[in-house]
Amino acid sequence: MNIGEAAKASGVSAKMIRYYEATGLIPAAGRTQSGYRLYSGTEVQMLRFIRRARDLGFPVERIQALLALWRDRSRHSSDVKRLAQEQIDGLQRKIAELQAMADTLQHLADACCGDHRPDCPILVDLGMGEATGQALVAPSGRHRPPALPTLGSRGD
Hints:
Elements: H1 3-10, H2 14-23, E1 30-31, E2 37-38, H3 41-55, H4 60-71, H5 77-111, H6 121-128
Antiparallel strand pairs: 1-2
Helix pairs in contact: 1-3
């Protein structure tokens, strides 16, 4: 099948198939006399494997290792499990980081009056952030940050 058919059958775009081929993730496809790429069912299955691994967040380097293990009939399942566990650990770290970001933003949003006044702890935090090393909004949400300068009020 040609690259368009392989893309449709695998769920991987033609552009990504070319990229995977160029980077060596998949072997170079056979070519017709007119230069069109040809893919077999085995190569489409490999593309499906890659797509599923990408859907699970595996980076290309880890997918290369997984593909090597997939092809190796004398593999140890412990090697596969180790790669999966490392991916799980990385995903758990990302989840914790995203939760911390959401918690911080929720805390700032709760501290913002959201009224007609210009004072806003969200903008203060974004403007000063962690450069000060200080929490700009108290956990109670009652802290009112200093007013921010407005455009043209810096004395320029």
